[in-house]
Amino acid sequence: MFTLAENEKIKSAQSVLIVGGGPTGVELAGEISVDFPEKHVTLVHSGSRLLEFIGPKASDKTLQWLTSKRVDVKLEQRVDLNSVTDSNGSKIYHTTAGESIRADCHFLCTGKPLGSGWLEGTILNSNLDSRGRLMVDEYLRVKGRKNIFAIGDITDVPVSLTPSVILAFGLFSIARMLLFTINYITNIWRLELMGPRET
Among 108, 139, 173, where does a domain finish? Predict the structure, then answer.
């Protein structure tokens, strides 16, 4: 998940502050705590629980897992990035609850826009809806394309994101894509071996 610059930023830090407890912030906190267990990670989230779009039980499990990895999670607080002060090489960040957090660097993981802007300059430009999402069919094939597939939040799939729905939809979609791909490859081989069918 890390870019080379972000990886170097994390490697050189003793402590990392993550602002935002949605999917991006939680994933980043988890990855740092696993890949760099010696780092002190603090995650600050303005909501009352992490991953608010999923059920409370899953949010609780996420919080338990992060704290088991020594991530310091602070809920119902915001970080004022305009009032950061330097102290002996580290930065001091201040929260709306009046807490001070010492960290060598921070990552802002709030309100991440959909990362599909780069598609506007490609052949898929005409396949984007008004919100910048790829329009796909029931096989997760980009509409109007035979061999281009997309999955995830970049698509226009209207689905409620609960863990069971994500798992079921993901497995179902993978199975359908595999069947479609096998059928597609089989047809190509048939054409190569036997030539086109006569009508």
Answer: 108
Which CATH number characterizes residue 15's domain? Answer: 3.50.50.60
How far apart CA 148 and CA 169 sit, in angstroms, is 18
pTM: 0.60
Q: Please count the other Cβ atoms lying within 10 Å of the Cβ belonging to residue 74.
A: 18
- Encoded amino acid at 183, one letter: N
Which element (helix H / strand E) includes 91? Answer: strand 90-95
Domain that holds residue 60: 4-108
At 162 the pLDDT is: 45
Strands 105-108 and 15-19: parallel
Instruction: Specify the number of domains making up the chain.
Output: 2
**pLDDT of residue 117 exceeding 50:** yes
Q: Are residue 89 and residue 131 in the same domain, yes or no?
A: no
Check the CA dihedral 52-55-56-59 and report its sign.
negative
